Amino acid sequence: MVGSARDGHLEVERLAVPGYEQVVRCRSTASGLDAVVAVHSTVLGPSLGGTRFHRYDTFDEALTDVLRLARGMTSKAAVAGLDQGGGKAVILGDPTDDRTEALILDYGRFVDGLAGAYLTAEDVGTTQADMDLIRSVTPYVTGVSPALGGSGDPSPATAVGLVHALEALAAHRFGVSSLADLHVAVAGVGKVGGALVDLLVERGARVTVADVDEVRVTTLVDLHGVAVAPPGSIHTVACDVLAPCALGGTLNATTIPELGCAAVCGSANNQLLEEADGDRLAAAGVLYVPDYVVNAGGIINIAEEWGGYDPARAAARIAAIGPTTAEVLRLAEAEGTTPVVAADRMANRRIAAALAHRHDG
Question: Which residues fall within 8 angstroms of residue 28, CB to CB, at 6 or more apart?
Fold first, then answer.
């Protein structure tokens, strides 16, 4: 711990975490807020990342999650060519039981106190309505309603970007130009995964879905006639591409040997449980496209708000995820390494160039 202070009824505690510009915890006994913001880097610009509202078993588990997510956002923004840094936030609790207007407003005041180092947005467990409420106490929020000048829910943009990535993957790995030739297993059909299924079916792909929420699955079966797999075993389904679109850590030493796919390309953050899992996938003959490369559509969309939101400009930048994915796969093949290593090199080169320019200036 670096130090703590009180801002009204908010108790703010700064944590010392090597490699991060700042990590701050905020609690309020009045509203029940317990939240952490991690700012990994602002080299390219203010850090931007969503707020995850989730029940964690321990504070250490929440801290580990937010640190991994923030670091991933730095790489995501760098590879996407955004002038944004990497940050993320978590609110500890159950969004169904613990979400109140007072808690969300306190969280907004917490973000405001960081003075623009972190720009928040919607993520798992938070909603556009939450972002609109946060906007009432701070300007440092994105993804608010179009009526407030924002771009709205970033989930559809994430799904569109993922389709562009899948098209690049299809050309590289399978030598086909259409998703109609692929069987995609979508693990998790919430806001992003559900929108992805709609887009895949529209393009003629064969789709299998799984989710712990049976209502979501039933809705997609009734709408599209998709196949269904149990949530715990969808990774074993024989398919061309597995698209993890729920929480992270699902690709690990246990699940990788069980994979039934030829490639993995999905929207979930931090799909690899540990760095070694990238090598495990390569050894298993599974082509893995790094999540932070292919799921950047949402952050690209909300980043556009700061220049005055232009849907056409945002759509063009989201479409560039396709060529970026193709370049990552090309570099990995040319350099004889994994796409994870190739993407990391691309991100690190851009950040290093920005640091060099800052020092020269």
Answer: 9, 10, 11, 103, 106
Instruction: Give all domains of the chain, ordered by start, each with its CATH number.
Output: 3-75+84-148 (3.40.50.10860), 155-349 (3.40.50.720)
| Tokens at 223, concatenated | 């709408």
Question: What would the 3-class secondary structure string for 231-290 be?
Answer: CCCHHHCCCCEEEECCCCCCECCCCHHHCCCCEECCCCCCCECCCHHHHHHHHCCCEECC
User: pLDDT tens digit string along 169-205?
Assistant: 999 999 998 999 899 999 999 999 999 999 999 999 9
* Catalytic hit among 25, 52, 71, 88: 88
Q: End-to-end distance of the chain based on CA atoms, in angstroms?
A: 33
Question: Per-residue pLDDT for 358 more than 60?
Answer: yes
The pTM of this model reads 0.87
Task: State the alpha helices, DSSP H only, in the chain.
Answer: 59-79, 95-98, 101-112, 128-135, 155-169, 191-202, 214-224, 276-283, 291-294, 297-303, 311-319, 321-335, 339-360
Q: Are strands 34-41 and 85-92 parallel, antiparallel or unpaired?
A: antiparallel
| Distance in angstroms (rounded) separating the CA atoms of residues 163 and 181 | 14
Task: Estimate to the nearest angstrom the gap between the alpha carbon of 137 and the chain centroid.
Answer: 25
Annotation marks residue 88 as catalytic: yes
- Which of 57, 59, 65 shows the shortest CA–CA distance to 270? 65
